[in-house]
Each structure stands twice: as C-alpha cells, then as structure tokens.
Amino acid sequence: MLELENITAGYGDTVVLRDVSISVPDGKVVALLGPNGAGKTTLLRVASGLIKSMSGRVELNGEDVTGRRPYYMSRRGLCNLPEGRGIFPSLTVRDNLILQSPKGKESATIERAAESFPALATRMKQTAGSLSGGEQQMLALVRTFASDPKIVVVDEASLGLAPIIVDRIFETLAQIVATGVSVLLVEQYVTRALALADTACLLNRGQVVFTGPANELEGDEIFERYFGIEISA
C-alpha cells in the first residue's frame, strides 16, 4: 500500500532522516514511535508529498510517487491528518465539511459528521477556529470518512486534548481501521497506539531502530533500552 524506501530527508542542509524504510501493508496499522526530534513528522511529510526527500523512493498502491505534490497523493487515496488539526479556522464548520467532501457528496458528509460527532451537529454555523481543540480534531477526522481514502497518515491526533476527548478520537480511529483503511500513525499515547497497531516502527535520531509486531513491545523494556523513556499510559 505505502512503501518508503531508503528515505533521507530534512530541511535545507539539515538532515533529519537517514536511509529510513517503512512499509504500510493494505488494511494494516503501523505505529511510528520515538522521542521528540526523532524525525517522525518529517517522515509523514515525505509520505504525504509535503516535502521532497533528498534520496529514496515513495511508492503508493504500486505507483512510484516520489516527489509528487500533496494534491496528487490525495487523488491517489492518501489522506493526511497533520499535527495542529488541519482545518480552515476562519470558515464555518459546515464550509469545512463541504470543502472536505467529494463533489456531489456534501450532504452525505455533513450527515456523517453529525452522526459520528454530535458535538459538531449544533455548531455548523460556528467558525471552526472558535471550536474547542477536541471539536477541531473531530472536524479534521471527518475528512477520513468524506474522502474515502485507501491510507490515512495521522500525526498526533490526541495532542493537547482532554482524556475524555482522546477516548473519542481513538474510538474514531478504530472505526476507520475497521473499514479496511491502512493507517500510518504517530501518537504520543504509546500504549494506545500499540493497541491499535499491527506493526510498530521505532525511530531514534532519524534512523529505524526497531520494526516488528506491535504486541512484542507490550510490557517490554525496549523504550528504556533505546530511548531511556517509559511508555506513557
């Protein structure tokens, strides 16, 4: 489904990733984990076409899409949910939903949003920027239903949210996974990410230090051995 092969990438003269390879199979979830500064967000940006890699190859659904722009990746079935919500704050909730929808499916998207997130149903005329952080993330997540993606790339969906909202976000991610969509997930709540994932990939200082079944990390000391940190609850 999504293959990142020998990716070296960064910003200007600064190299963040060095020869990183990750595979996200069809219908599977890969949790991309590691400490701050490991290169997780940079890898997601390469996968989404937001930045070009210095070397390496990106393949989506069997097609070489290395260096392709984000709109091209979107048309090929990749949905990017970036850190920081990824919405249009000056537009209303309704207008955000319309922009997220394929042409002719706007009403269905609005109905699905109201059904999945009742909190949005009463805020259709409210500007998205005035919503709470949790409501903004809910609005961003609607895109995964509206665009009918083949793979979803998620960067810190729970960042800065209250625990009760985090529960709702993970419930929604589980619903997305249940439809057979592939997911590449960066998440601060490590144990939650591992519970959702089939495979875990650990990055440290821009390099892969572990790839394997997610359940091999449960109760393991691998985070202490590689990163010197404890797994968050």
Describe the structure.
The protein has 233 residues and is α/β, with parallel strands linked by helices. The chain has two domains: 1-77 and 149-233, P-loop containing nucleotide triphosphate hydrolases (Rossmann fold, 3-Layer(aba) Sandwich), CATH 3.40.50.300; 87-148. Helix content is 34%, strand content 26%. The chain is built from nine helices and ten strands. It has helices at residues 40-48, 70-75, 93-100, 106-116, 118-121, 133-146, 163-178, 190-196, 222-226; strands at residues 2-11, 14-24, 29-33, 55-60, 63-64, 78-81, 151-155, 182-186, 199-204, 207-213. A six-stranded mixed beta sheet has the order 6-7-8-3-9-10, sandwiched between helices. A four-stranded antiparallel beta sheet has the order 2-1-4-5, covered by helices on one side. Strand 9 (199-204) and strand 10 (207-213) form a beta hairpin. Helix 3 (93-100) packs parallel to helix 6. It is globular. The two termini are 30 Å apart. The relative contact order is 0.18. The model has no long low-confidence stretch (mean pLDDT 89).
